[in-house]
Design goal:
The complex is a heterodimer of chains A (279) and B (492).
Chain A: H1 14-18, H2 20-44, E1 49-50, H3 55-58, E2 66-67, E3 71-76, H4 89-101, E4 106-111, H5 123-126, E5 135-139, H6 143-155, E6 159-165, H7 171-184, E7 188-192, E8 204-211, E9 225-234, E10 246-252, E11 257-260
Parallel strand pairs in A: 3-7, 3-8, 4-5, 4-6, 6-7
Antiparallel strand pairs in A: 1-2, 8-9, 9-10, 10-11
Chain B: H1 3-9, H2 20-34, E1 41-43, H3 45-48, H4 54-59, E2 69-71, H5 83-100, H6 113-122, H7 136-141, H8 152-161, H9 174-181, H10 184-193, E3 209-219, H11 222-243, E4 245-256, E5 261-272, H12 275-286, E6 295-307, H13 321-325, H14 330-341, E7 346-351, H15 357-360, E8 361-365, H16 375-382, E9 389-400, E10 410-413, E11 416-430, E12 451-459, E13 464-469, E14 485-490
Antiparallel strand pairs in B: 1-2, 3-6, 4-5, 4-6, 7-8, 9-10, 9-14, 10-11, 11-12, 12-13, 13-14
Helix pairs in contact in B: 6-10, 11-12, 12-14
Classes of the chains: A alpha/beta (279), B alpha+beta (492).
Chain lengths: 279, 492
Amino acid sequence: MPVISPSAFAPPDRRAANDPATSVPTALREKVRRLERANSVQRSGKAAAVPLGIAAIDALLPDGGLLTGALHEIEAGPCPSGRVAPHDGAALGFAAHLLGRFGPGTILWCRRPTGRFDAPPYAPALSSWFDPARLLMVTAHRDDDLFWAMEEGLRCPGIAAVLGETRAADPTAGRRLSLAAEKNGVPALLLRAQPAPPQSVCATRWRIASAPSCSTPGLKDVGAARWRLELRRNRFGTPSAAETPSWLLEWNDETHCLAVVPQALHGSPGSHFEERLVG
Amino acid sequence: MRLADARALLPDIITVAGEPQADLRLIEAIAGWCDRYTPWVAIDPMGGALADDIERTCSAGGFGGDAGLLLDVTGCTHLFGEGEAGERALLADLVTRLARRDLSCRAAMADTAGAAWALARFAERQADLFCPSRGQRDALGSLPVEGLRLDPPILETFLKLGLRRIGDLYPMPRAPLVRRFGDQPLNRLDQALGTLAEPIEPRRIPPAFRTRLAFAEPIGRAEDIAAATSRLLAALCRQFEQAGVGARQLEIALYRVDGSVDRTSIGTSRPNRDNPKLMKLFEERLGELDPGFGVELMILAAPEVEAWSGTQDALPDQNAPGIASGVDGTIDLADRLALRLGAENVVRLLSRDSHLPERVQVAAAVSSKPAAAGAWRRVASLKGARPTRLLQRPEPVEVTAFVPDDPPSVFHWRRHAHRIVRADGPERIANEWWRPRSDGTHPPAGTLPPVRDYYRVEDDDGGRFWLFRDGPYQLAANGQPTARWFLHGFCA
């Protein structure tokens, strides 16, 4: 049993400490989480969490960032109009952004081709987030093989992160992936082109939909990519005021910077989201 | 003899249709079995050449009648005993084992393939089947001239001339023989006597490295097979170390008591002689092997080896440390994945100098040299914005545009209308005229290569797409525009 300093049990932020109703469950949750994780993190010798670089989101996440050694799920959400998203380009971009934050080392990308209309990830675009030379692409034609390949990757010391692209939701496989990730301190990401039943064991679950971009005034050009990001599950993190915290993000391809769009600048047709924003 | 003639002579004759393909399969199975004696096994070309033609097969010694196998046992007989005793023991072992399976055969051993061929077919006494070293001249002298593997017309003329024994040719002057019959008779004679080399082309390329393990009692348990594999592997790795090589491919063959052979192989992405790692790869495959009624012999061979490059392959690259150096186990992971999923399914991505989006990204084997650090970034910075997903085949879309050369206002894809509110473009990408077309022809000189105009568009739902029009807007004779629109990718 690792020795845990008493300060580790301190509530992470002042608001929770001041409020007696939330401080006890928060402290307890924090304690359980530390006990669960301290072992694996100490063994792997890697950082326990990697910040996303967005203060508003990192504040909600445990240890101020995305946990390495956990399973994270990323799914493409529906369009602002409620229609099923025609593609998961935005979700893939967000997944690539996350992958770029983990490293150094090889990134194992396992995917199951979707038949005739298969659209594999395109490396020139991925190079905005990480060097595609780090990629090891694996194509599996069965879900069993895909989960097996991901698990093998999680056990390999040279792997920085493992991503699996599949529509299948297999609770046993999810549990195994989560355990393997925890044991080796390597993050496992599941990318879903369509919303799927959640894996109960995932540490975080994100839903990303493309949002209308902002043109140069007076022109009708495509601006910097904007994503509507929802944090739908945050297992070890701080509870947020909103049921599902949601942000409008903008990816600047020139400065390689992902940032929350200030609320005052929401001039786009997707404004009906605004009431659900967390300030 | 025709079937009708045979029936007239013997009315209750039992007839069975000839199956040259089944015969060939049997011969190949026996040839595979013979790998236990030597890796250098060939199916007698005299039989193989005739296998297609059943009419000639029976008359001239092909399959069905007397098919043959040629084994080069040079350097293999010491496993059965010293010197000539070992050679005799090998021959006796071969005949007994085949006889045990109800296969009647005649096996002869001689210094040359030609002499052994003639002895196996025409020797009159059992003792003559083994021809001692350099004794083929005496042994062949009394055999009929058919034993020289001559073409039927030459053979017929020889018989007419009264040249019935091979020995009859020994005193003949060579020059007139060549003038009369061409090179063949003397070449065949020289090959049989050993003055002219006759290479045997093996059925399977014999591996450079090979270890074998024979069992006194047949084994069948999976644990025993794994233990035997481990021992073979240790012996083979010692051979690798002495020769300074590493294996790229290893093959294990199980020789079962019923005479059949089961094989499986593993491949590695770089020369490997690490015993535990190779064993781990084998463990994946051993389960597929079927020991049947028992295994009496196992052979581990390395058909493909490469010079050993040492443990320090490359200095770790700061940006791509894992896969480039392979010291951290990534290469071994790739090997394990490739073994189960197939080597073509475990790849890394290399960039290619090309303007066509679908040609820029190329999947390469893990063993290939990885892209230099930053190479992808350079590729990306030269081009415009690129989609995060690229469709393997561009999908045709229906498009409405107010002005022909403008980006479309609406496009229909998979039964959904996407109203375009923002668009970037066009980015014109011309086809590469210096590359031959897919059918290998070059476009005629003077014609313009087809161009594509790419647009990055955003629909009213915020979805971003990559569309292109295959050529400039033009009206055909019937008033329809010639250019079509395609969807090629999805942007972030």
